[in-house]
Design goal:
It contains twelve helices and 21 strands. With 416 residues, it is an alpha/beta fold. The protein has a single domain, classed as FAD/NAD(P)-binding domain. A hairpin with a 3-residue loop joins strand 12 and strand 13. Helix 5 crosses helix 12. The chain binds flavin-adenine dinucleotide (FAD). Flavin-adenine dinucleotide binds next to helix 1, helix 2, strand 15, strand 19 and helix 12.
């Protein structure tokens, strides 16, 4: 057996790290405080998103957040709180929301997304995870207003400059590709570079494959502390015991900041809550789409259609705010003719917490304080898409191999 590696967190990021490390012969243990059957890696929209080249921290976002603070059903919500971590995050977010940051972030986001898309493709081709849904039909950005349309067309031009496959659709082209859209829709941009998946299916298959290939899972076990000396973590302490490790990976999603504090590390994060509604009856949804004005994601998954949305920065909690879920359902009905999401479907909504860094870029890499710790979190709205690339990069860092891409922009100790 190879060196012992402990991964804290069994979401898509932690499991992707386990996948690539176990391929390299490492002895891998995944510790997760939950049953590993819910949360962000299960409720997400399943998009693989080279199209999302603009980070959340971009000009105008702070103003939007403040404007929407008082709207109970807005798609982006920051709950004002006198909490130092939140206030620092908001300050860094505001400082990062500049055009120069966006310009720097674009190639990084694009490269890591394309790497991850290829890796999803390799996983699919390997058959290791069965014949999971991986469809490359692209992503439609549906808009009703000229303002959203113009904004998206600008992003599309930038994406084209980056070599991504994208086209503007006429209304006729759009209606042929996706019938039954409301007449209110003015047009769409089609990002052909994107793909979609069913997260639940991949998570189940990943867990099964990893278990069968020697990865040890400690479920319902919470990492609560560490023992360390000089630059080495010697043990991970949980609520049930302690584990020695040669390498430790923190991939604990929105909880990573609190865990990192135990090591006196500052990893700035906020939980960005999002909701999903599954509609398990036929809908006319053929292509994945983002309903631009409402910021709702629609995905035709393997056995149902998923409607997902909202970015609610209200701390770590899983309270379901029905008015926000209802806003998602309402938006769906206003973009697709005849689509009505029922009260039963609304009441079965689930939520998950995105780990949101202030500049919208993930944290991937080692810190200066420990030689045997790597951080893999902060992926915000792209964690599903970027899971495999993150896992691969982490395995390359730990095994001292050549990196698949330059990751200096993702340094966990970068300044904002
Ligand atoms: C509604 C919604 C839609 C989304 N749509 C998309 C999309 O279409 N495409 C995309 O790319 N991304 C999307 N995302 C974002 C994506 O889902 C997340 O970025 C991603 O799932 C984060 O994965 P993770 O492994 O970092 O965290 P998580 O999935 O949150 O996993 C972290 C795990 O760590 C465990 N943990 C935490 N603390 C401890 C501890 N102390 N000890 C042990 N275990 C611990 C938790 O139990 C959890 O299982 C969406 C998110 C939401 C909410």
């Amino acid at each position: 057996m190879g060196k012992k590696t402990i991964i804290i967190g069994g979401g898509i990021v932690g499991l992707s790290c386990a996948y690539y490390l176990s391929e390299l012969g490492y002895e891998v243990t995944v510790i997760d405080k939950s049953e590993m059957d819910g949360g962000a890696s299960y409720v997400n929209a399943g998009y693989l998103t080279p199209s999302h080249i603009i980070p959340l921290a971009s000009p105008g976002m702070m103003a939007k957040g403040i404007k929407w603070m008082f709207k109970s059903a807005s798609p982006f919500y920051m709950q004002p709180r006198l909490d130092m971590d939140f206030l620092k995050w908001a300050w860094y977010f505001s400082r990062s929301s500049t055009s120069s940051h966006v310009e720097k972030a674009i190639p990084l986001i694009k490269d890591i997304n394309l790497l991850s898309m290829d890796l999803y493709g390799d996983m699919h081709a390997s058959g290791n995870l069965g014949n999971f849904q991986l469809e490359k039909k692209g992503l439609l950005m549906l808009y009703k207003t000229t303002k959203e349309g113009n904004h998206e067309k600008e992003v599309a031009l930038r994406a084209k400059d980056e070599g991504l496959e994208v086209r503007e659709l006429t209304k006729d082209q759009l209606n042929t590709l996706q019938p039954n859209l409301s007449d209110e829709i003015d047009g769409a941009v089609h990002y052909l570079c994107d793909a979609h998946t069913s997260p639940n299916e991949i998570m189940q298959n990943l867990k099964r494959y990893l278990s069968e290939n020697g990865v040890d899972f400690k479920l319902r076990e919470e990492a609560i502390d560490f023992t360390f000396q000089n630059k080495k973590i010697s043990k991970v302490i949980t609520n049930k015991g302690s584990y020695e490790a040669d390498d430790v990976i923190i991939a604990a999603g929105s909880w990573s900041q609190n865990l990192a504090k135990k090591l006196r590390l500052k990893i700035n994060l906020q939980a960005g809550k999002g909701y999903r509604i599954n509609v398990k009856r036929p809908t006319d949804v053929i292509l994945p789409a983002i309903l631009m004005e409402a910021k709702v994601a629609v995905t035709p998954m393997k056995e149902f259609t998923r409607f997902a949305g909202t970015m609610e920065l209200s701390g770590i909690n899983h309270k379901i705010k029905t008015n926000r879920v209802r806003a998602i359902a309402h938006a769906a009905g206003s973009y697709y003719n005849g689509l009505e999401i029922s009260e039963t479907e609304i009441s079965a909504a689930k939520c998950g917490l995105r780990p949101v860094s202030p500049d919208g870029l993930p944290y991937i890499g080692k810190t200066s304080k420990f030689d045997n710790l790597t951080i893999a979190t902060g992926h915000a709205m792209m964690g599903w898409s970027l899971g495999p690339a993150t896992g691969k990069l982490i395995s390359e860092i730990i095994s001292d191999s050549k990196l698949s891409m330059d990751i200096s922009g993702f340094h966990p100790e970068r300044k904002f």
